[in-house]
Design goal:
Elements (H helix, E strand, L loop, with lengths): L2 E13 L5 E7 L3 E7 L18 E6 L7 E8 L11 H17 L7 H16 L5 H15 L24 E4 L4 E3 L11 E3 L1 H12 L2 H4 L6 H19 L6 H14 L1
Parallel strand pairs: 3-5
Antiparallel strand pairs: 1-2, 1-4, 2-3, 4-5, 6-7, 6-8
Helix pairs in contact: 1-2, 1-3, 1-7, 2-3, 3-4, 3-6
This protein binds zinc ion.
Zinc ion binds next to loops.
Length: about 260
């Protein structure tokens, strides 16, 4: 096996003994890869320790046909604490990002822009005021979908391509299973639509083209953002034909319900 190096970030680790595990990395050079981490969990290990959500320089033995590669060394570049005004919410949003990447990235398919974008996402999640965090996730989700070729049509009707123009208080219908918004003329009885208020539609549309810096000044409450999360989760589950419901977001739901009490 050949020794190789890449900037990387951990997406998930599966422990299989007290000292060893399999780690799924998002590497800059190769995209998503799984590596064995022999002895990395041991406190006696002399090499750098793997930390979740920390951009790191990964040295590893490349995988070959019949065998998985393995971690040689880790050099942590940056650590996010997610501790500003309490950790739980921020950690859940950082995890939601990792969960989406793990589900949607193809193995060994480099995504340089997404790699840099995910690190910027974590930086923002770590530092922005609490009220702006949900909008960051929606912007991240939308960018990820577009980069991976699943671009939902929000501003234009998915059927006739006409620009969606909100009228008065009438809701805009987002056909998550159809692939985007559906105008009044093209709506079909029996189809499943998610109903967005004109205000939510405007935010949804703006976040599709927003940079993370632009998203980080959009306040959306947790209850409203859940609607957009559901719309995107249902959209991608239908497009990618897999269950893309996020465990980290179920956790956010619980937080929301407990804070409402
Ligand atoms: Zn239409």
């Amino acid at each position: 096996m050949a020794l190789d190096k890449s900037d990387a970030i951990v997406l998930k680790a599966f422990n299989w003994s007290e000292s060893s595990r399999t780690v799924i990395f998002f590497t800059k050079k190769y995209g998503k890869i799984a590596l064995f981490d022999k002895g990395g969990r041991s406190i006696k290990s002399k090499r750098g320790r793997i930390m979740p959500f920390a951009p790191l320089e990964l040295t590893f033995y490349n995988s070959e046909k019949e065998s998985t590669g393995y971690v040689s060394d880790i050099d942590i570049q940056e650590v996010f604490s997610f501790e500003k005004d309490g950790t739980l919410g921020r950690l859940a949003y950082a995890s939601a990002g990792a969960e989406l990447l793990r589900m949607l990235l193809a193995e060994e398919n480099p995504q340089h822009q997404l790699f840099t974008y995910y690190i910027s996402y974590l930086q923002q999640i770590d530092s922005v005021d609490k009220q702006f965090i949900p909008a960051l996730l929606i912007a991240f989700f939308l960018r990820l979908l577009s980069q991976l070729g699943y671009h939902p049509s929000i501003a234009y009707c998915i059927v006739c391509n006409k620009e969606i123009q909100p009228k008065g208080d009438n809701p805009i219908l987002f056909g998550a299973d159809n692939g985007g918004s559906v105008c009044n003329t093209c709506q079909k009885p029996g189809d499943y639509y998610i109903s967005l208020s004109p205000e939510m539609f405007k935010i949804f549309k703006a976040l599709q083209t927003a940079s993370l810096q632009e998203a980080a000044i959009v306040p959306i409450g947790l209850s409203k953002v859940t609607l957009l999360q559901d719309a995107l989760t249902r959209f991608i589950s239908s497009q990618a034909q897999m269950d893309c419901r996020l465990k980290s977001l179920a956790f956010i739901e619980k937080l929301k319900n407990s804070s409402n009490k």
